[in-house]
Amino acid sequence: VELVESGGGSAQTGGSLKLSCVVSGLTYNTPCMGWFRQTPGKEREGVALIDNDGSTSYEDSVKGRFTIPKDNNKRTLYLEMNTLKPEDSAIYYCAVDLVPSCGWYTPAYNYWGQGTQVTVSS
User: Fold this and answer.
1) For 85-103, how does the pLDDT look when each residue is reduced to its tens digit (9 = 90+)?
2) Which residues are within 8 A (CB) of 107 and not within 5 positions of it... i.e. 6 or more apart?
């Protein structure tokens, strides 16, 4: 199983970025997928989740600014980030949980991408 993220980069405050995560090696739609982020010295935190039915959850600080659509045919997960803030700067990871619990507990996730850097300048 491989998850490959892309789309990170730099943006100004108030700008937008769109991350993509292509999943390969799974023969079925994943019960739960999510985006997480991590900054130096801090634990990895959940940003947005989507379950197999398309239900979504968002961390409070990104509600109304980020969305997490997915394309099952392309086996691709996205993170659309709008109205970016400097505190959104982090390495962003996509992850897959093979159990349909779809929660924020990072150790529950079975597979992770390599991460993509997002930097928001003021």
Assistant:
1) 999 999 999 999 988 778 9
2) none
